[in-house]
Amino acid sequence: MKRLTGELTYPFLAVLAAFLIGGLVVLLIGENPLTVYWLLISSAFGLYDALGNFTWDNWGYTLFYATPLIFTGLAVALAFHCGLLNIGAEGQLYVAALAAAWVGFTWTGLPGILLTGLAILAAMVAGGLWGALPGWLKARFGAHEVINTIMLNFVAIGLVSYLTQNHFKIPSDPIMQTGMIDEKAALPRLAHLLAPMGIDFPARIPLNLSFFIALIAALLVWFFLRRTSWGYELRAAGANPAAAEYAGISVRRQIVLAMAISGALAGLVGVNEVLGYRYRYYHDFSPGYGFAGIAVALLGRNHPLGIVLAAILFGALNRGGLFVDIFTDRVSKDLVQVLQAIIILFVAIEILFRRGVVRLRRIMPQRALSPSPNESSGRPTL
Amino acid sequence: MIDTTADLLNLTLIASTLRLSTPLILAALGGLYAERSGVINIALEGMMLAGAFSAAATTALTGNPWIGLLAAILSGILVGLIHAAATVTWRADQVVTGTAINLLFLGVPALLSGALFDSTGATPQLTRDQVLPDLKIVDPGGSQTLVSIFNQKPIVYLAFILVALTGYVLARTRFGLRIRAVGENPEAADTAGLVVARIRYTAVLISGALAALGGAYLSIGQNSLFTRNMTAGRGFIALAALIFGKWSPTGTLLACLLFGLAEALSIRMQGTVNIPNQFIQMIPYVLTMVVLAGFIRRSSPPRALGIAYIKE
Q: Which of A19, A69, B84, B222 has its CA 20 to 30 A from that of A299?
């Protein structure tokens, strides 16, 4: 219990600090921060619309926006457990999305379930290979994965842009997108899942089966890392490579494996986008899911449950941001991006809060100083 | 006749290469200072964006591009201060902090331009006499080829001067020696009586100023306004050039010129040559990966790069 409060304290403080600074910025711009934040929160979590009618929209969209962030957050966290920083989720999810779409509009002769399954598999394999490449470059040549994943983001976006433009676009279409995937490949939206139960969930909300795939992925990542020997080896390679090597674990193999799984998880964003939302590959679709994933993983302290919660918070910010954009004169939805960036910054410099909390505990002498649980891991903070 | 046209094309290619390399050179030099002192700077992109926006916004408000330039440098120093405080003083992960700064300055300019100019992420268009003027090295009425090569913005010349200056500072001055010392072996530098944190702060602030200058060149030199995400990955190309150039000023300059040439070619070849544009744009990124995997071991990064120094 004590550990749990410790785990929650710093992320909470980081979010609070980000909102305070964001509030100052809003004030500077000339709007009332309280009004802006109320708009943000009520439009993300409220159950009633402005007219007082019950609505699923807010929660529906918040969870829809959270879905890709769960995937990228898990991707970043899994690599991190092996001591790697995967900044390449953005590139991985692009190649994966195109791969899923390609299966969806090419293998149309296959029966429904098989086609969907194959499209999901294609996304995971494409993302996994794109992630494994910098892993292999690190394992084989010692090339730093941070630089290579950044470089591969640009290469991936160039590659899918080329393929879309020159091979998969319908020539008469002015928009950079592929043709539609076969309807059989599409994942059902929540509206269709809830309809048999008599719940009237609007079909326009794009929340789909991918959200549940994301929750299952979170559970599987937890199980893999904490309950299997493979996960243990992966974490051992990250925590202390020399000791792991001594114990007979091939650190190089773990690096490639971790990056491959990480890429496959990031690739599932393509499943939500292509099979659950647009039913085609639409170029430039990601507003930076891969980078937001770093924030989500950090804020969720690299724990699957924390990541799901952090992703829902970020999803809520994205949903609320749209309302702030529309209903205030001067504050745009870019406020959300600024808030997210400040959150990462504060989570990264957690030591700031830690010192503050330690000082507080000193002031209250009856409570003993307890050593922090996460002080000793490979990297100093993340 | 055909030959002269080809020559003209080649010579104006030099002009556009110089123009397109300039922001890369400045940002990469910025990266060089930070990284030689031991602080990873993947925040170059954000620093460039901050500089580009500050320059354009200030010029739009004051009508004077030189004040705009000054504002850009100040904004760069400020962003450098955020990076240095987080990574040097509070020992935050340097890569994560850099990523946060990049995200931050994707959002901040858009937020501020909305408030200042009631726009969605862009600053107002500057008039011709509000952007930085071209130098008149050769007679503007003479050969247009020579004019396009030599009559560049002052920042273009400044970039090359700064490369030479950086080479001199790093190799020959006490300050340069100190930067290298804290980047290679901070413990020894500390033992020798240097304040590691102060030197790293200085290096990162210089880094911010230079990268922001590169950004300013984009918004009030090459163009006449700031647009959303106008750096379009140039901060990362600069980082690539720094690695490709093995963290040395001359190597970095050559890498930037190469990447500038690639961009110039990709613009020129649009629609005429059968190589897809996307592949030409990939060149810097692919080359960097090849270098990292191949002959980088002969010249490795500063030894203490990425490691926060904890004073005993």
A: B84
Among A284, A306, A286, A288, residue whose Cα is nearest residue A296: A306
The domain limits of chain B are 22-124+131-298
CB A9 within 8 A of CB A297: no
CATH tag, B22-124+131-298: 1.10.3470
List chain A residues with CB under 8 Å of B278.
158-159, 161-162, 165
Q: Which chain A residues are closer than 8 Å to B289 by Cβ?
A: 137, 143, 147-148, 151-152
Residues in contact with A18: Cβ distance below 8 Å, sequence separation at least 6, in sequence order = A339, A342, A343, A345, A346
What is the separation of C-alpha A286 from the centre of its chain, rounded to a whole number of angstroms?
11
The distance of Cα B85 from the centroid of its chain, to the nearest Å, equals 21
The C-alpha atoms of residue A338 and residue A254 are separated, in whole angstroms, by 35
Determine the distance in angstroms separating the CA of B94 from the nearest CA of chain A, rounded to an integer.
9
> Does any CB of chain B come closer than 8 Å to the CB of residue A291?
yes
Lowest mean pLDDT among A146-160, A254-268, B57-71, B138-152: B138-152
What is d(CA A164, CA A71) in angstroms, rounded to the nearest whole number? Answer: 24
Q: In B, residues 88-147, which contact A (CB 8 Å cutoff)?
A: 90-93, 95-97, 99-104, 106-108, 110-112, 114-115, 118, 120-121
Residue A54: φ, ψ to 5°: -65, 140
> From CA A323, how far away is CA A332, in angstroms rounded?
9
Decide if B88 contacts B197 (C-beta within 8 A): yes
Residue B49's nearest CA partner among B216, B184, B174, B189 is B216
Output the CA–CA distances (angstroms, integers) from residue B33 to A167, A171, B253, in the order listed.
44, 48, 14
* Paired strand residues for A189: A208
CB contacts under 8 A, B 240-269 vs A, are 240, 243
Is A159 within 8 Å of A95 (Cβ atoms)? yes
Q: Is the pLDDT of residue B7 over 60?
A: no
CB–CB of A284/A176 below 8 Å? yes
Q: Does A340 touch chain B (CB under 8 A)?
A: yes
Question: How far is Cα of residue B233 from the mean position of the Cα atoms in its chain?
Answer: 11
Of A180 and B144, the structure prediction assigns the larger pLDDT to: A180
Return left, alpha or beta for B247; rule: phi > 0 is left, psi -120 to 50 is alpha, else beta. left
Question: d(Cα A281, Cα A287) in Å, to the nearest integer?
Answer: 15
Please classify residue B222 by burial: count the beta carbons closer than 10 Å to its beta carbon, then call 0-12 exposed, 13-18 middle and 19+ buried: middle
CA-to-CA distance for A283 and B259, rounded, in angstroms? Answer: 25
Q: In Å, how far are A42, A122, A376, B99, B239 from B244, measured between CA atoms?
A: 49, 34, 34, 21, 9
Q: Please name each of the domains of chain A with its CATH number.
A: 2-363 (1.10.3470)
Q: What is the ipTM of this complex?
A: 0.88
